[in-house]
## 1
Amino acid sequence: MKKMYFVYIVLTMGIFILAIIWAKSDIMFMIDVPSLALLLGPTILMLLSHFSPKEFINAFKAAMAKNSASKGELKNALLFFSTAQTLIAASTVVAVFLGIIMVLGAIWKGYDNNARILSGWMAVDFVSILYLAFGMLFVTVPFKSAVKKKLNELES
């Protein structure tokens, strides 16, 4: 993984923030603790059921290090990031379904006159999907790609 990775993250986030500002929206709409908890909580807990905290760190080190990781370490890192990508997607699906069930349940019980409550639950759905996209864009895909690239270099 290139050393400039973090610079590219900042620049990419800057583009997203500028787009939100240009659209005359409020960036605080994009910050939602329940969505973050529904994504990160299950993802991290399920990752801990397969990997130790030391293996978490080693996976990131293997992706970031300058070709110092062994083939076994790279394969474990690849497995870690592949598993993380699958788990964050699965957590998002669960979060979205929970939000939809809450909205439909509220409508069914006659809470449909309270748009503020319903829109809050719907926001959990959409922001959860946004966080999934950010997680894949900034973590799982780049790190997984860096590990695959190193494995390819090792094998050739």
## 2
Amino acid sequence: MATSAVDICNSALNIIGASNIISLDEDSKAGRICKQRYPNVRDSVFRSHPWNCLINRIQLTANTSSPTFEFQYQYDLPADPFCLRVIKLEFLETVYRIEGRKLLTNESQLKLIYVGRNENVSDYDMLLSESIAAAMASDLAYPLVGSNTLAQQMYDMYQRKLSEARFVDSTEGTPAQTENLQQAGQVQADYFLLSRF
């Protein structure tokens, strides 16, 4: 099981047949590219699904200033852990909009469930780690191996691993919890079953 960003990057490098790295700070082509690309690739995978291991809950306090028009209140999105994606507000019918790092709404009190940036790899579900490694393999294939064909193969593999990880992740919890997350924007498990054929 991956315990560091280097482990995930090495999994990706192994998949495309490249040499391992010792550190993201090492002075090698693979090290430099992994250091540059890993945070963005990881965060894009994080944003792609409401991963159970990345879910955070918080009650927000409204800002003293309010939006110029349309909404009555604005809230700063959480910074610790950094909010990558809003999943759900306490009441599903709440109307809101994300603008920059602000959440605008007419609600004077706000409880929020969100995907947060967690850099501690040992907290990740195994299938999430595998999905990030596959995404990295897709991202690294052309710059390190110079093959568009391999890059496409790695992208296809990433999509398969991501589908499996999303399906498993979305089916953990009681049916009511699963249904609520689906209503909040999570893709339904049936979609992933069908996509595998």
